[in-house]
Amino acid sequence: MEENKLTFEESLSRLQEIVSKLENNDIELQKAFSLFEEGLGLVEKCEMELREFDDSMQQLLIKHEKVGKKDE
Fold first, then answer.
1. Residue 44: CB atoms within 10 Å
2. Which of residues 29 and 72 earns the better pLDDT score?
3. Is 70 a residue whose pLDDT tops 90?
4. Within 13 Å of residue 60, how many CA atoms lie on the same side as its CB?
5. Among 9, 26, 49, 61, which residue carries the largest CB count within 10 Å?
6. For residues 3 and 27, what is the distance between their CA atoms, to the nearest angstrom?
7. Of 18, 59, 58, 20, nearest in space to 40 by CA
8. What confidence score (pLDDT) does residue 65 get?
9. Domain extent for 60
């Protein structure tokens, strides 16, 4: 599955799989490097999604605050 099409939860699950494989000492160096690279991409994707979620939450809170002040 393409990295960009994964949901946040699927990305986290894939990261857990990658960590498990990397913790296994029975992995070829090139495969370990490839998994590490994939993991970094997933971390960046998840961080971006969390920032976007946080921004959306902040905007909702600000909007709610403004509506609450109008009602006073």
1. 11
2. 29
3. no
4. 6
5. 49
6. 22
7. 18
8. 83
9. 3-71
User: Alpha-carbon distance 14 to 34, whole Å?
Assistant: 14
- Burial string for 6-25 (b: 16+ CB within 10 Å, else e) reads beeeebeebbeebeeeeeee
1 pLDDT more than 90 = no
% of residues, the chain, pLDDT over 90: 76
Q: Residue 42 is encoded by which pair of tokens?
A: 């997933």
pTM for this entry: 0.78
Number of C-alpha atoms within 13 angstroms, CB side, residue 24? 12
Q: Which two tokens stand for residue 39?
A: 């993991």
- How many alpha carbons lie under 13 Å from residue 10 in its C-beta half-sphere? 7
57: pLDDT strictly greater than 90? yes
Number of domains in the chain: 1
